[in-house]
Amino acid sequence: MQFLKYKGRSDILWGIGIVVGILLLAVLSRYYLPPLHMESTYRNIVMKGEVVAQMRINLLKSVEMEKNAVMAITDEESRKFADQSLAASTAIEQNLADLHSLIDAVPLQNEKKLAAEFITCWTELRQLDQIILDFAVQNTNLKAASLSQEKGSELLQRLEHALENLMSSYAGNPNEARINLFSFQAITAGLKAFNLHSSHIAEASDVKMDQIETQIKAEENVVAKSLDGLAEIVGDENNNLLLQAKTSFSEFNKVTAQVIKLSRQNSNIKSLEFSLGRKRKIAAQCDEILAAFQETVQKNGASRAIR
């Protein structure tokens, strides 16, 4: 009987010991052996920070490459930088997908809110990028300038050379004064029309381009009338020189029309305006959101470490 009482007390003590041991193990596990879900949470926080940091790097690269595409002076360079900008943007899209997966795994309201804000900002930025890069690779203003400086300048020199030879051939002739007057008028008006090319190419306003085109047309009319005046004086022996002048002027007018057509598209000016204007503001907003996200991730990690 005494043995049974002792055995009963022993069983109770063993039971109490087991319970105490379980409680102690739970306490030790809580403070010294972090649970698997806590370890997973910390890993999630670290990965979020890394992804957002990479997004900021890719955002900066996308903006810089887009700016280079706008400032490039050849089609090849523009396309190369545009491709690099698009590649950086594509990388951000992948980063964003990774970030969503991490947020879904450990959803925190403040992070979800910032992610939604970034998506709104990023969508607007991508739309602007598409417009800017489409304009940048066209390079219509640069093409207009190149056409004017190369072909336009060459044709105007031909006109001037033909008329100078014509004036030389009439030196001492009774018609010398009239030949010189019409020739100088044609050369001067041609130079004025040529100089207006650059003003048109640099102009962004449609109204002002209209005004410049009116001035160009007026100078072209002066050249045409001067050449017609020469046609009434020049004899058959010098008709070839006058024909050279007229041909050069006709081709110059065609170049002027092409320059105006390209200049009217204003792709370089428009891309530059977008790039230096609204694009910069939106890009800065997107980066601010990502910076806030980084700070929020750090705070969330610190608060969980305290717990």
Structural write-up:
- With 307 residues, this protein is mainly alpha-helical.
- It has 2 domains: 44-138 and 277-306; 140-269, de novo design (two linked rop proteins).
- The protein contains 10 helices and no strands.
- Helix 2 (36-71) packs antiparallel against helix 3, helix 3 packs antiparallel against helix 4 (109-138) and helix 7 (206-231) packs antiparallel against helix 8 (239-265).
- The longest helix is centred in the N-terminal third of the chain and has 36 residues, at 36-71.
- It is rod-shaped and about 100 Å long.
- The two termini are 53 Å apart.
- Mean pLDDT is 85; it is low at 1-8 and 11-36.
Shape: rod-shaped
**Low-pLDDT stretches:** 1-8, 11-36
Tally of contiguous helical segments: 10
Mean pLDDT: 85
> Roughly what percent helix?
over 70%
Task: Report the span from N to C terminus.
Answer: 53 Å
Structural class comes to mainly alpha
Q: Any idea how many domains?
A: 2
- Major sheet description: none
How much of the polypeptide forms β-strand, as a percent range?
Answer: under 5%
Radius of gyration: 39 Å
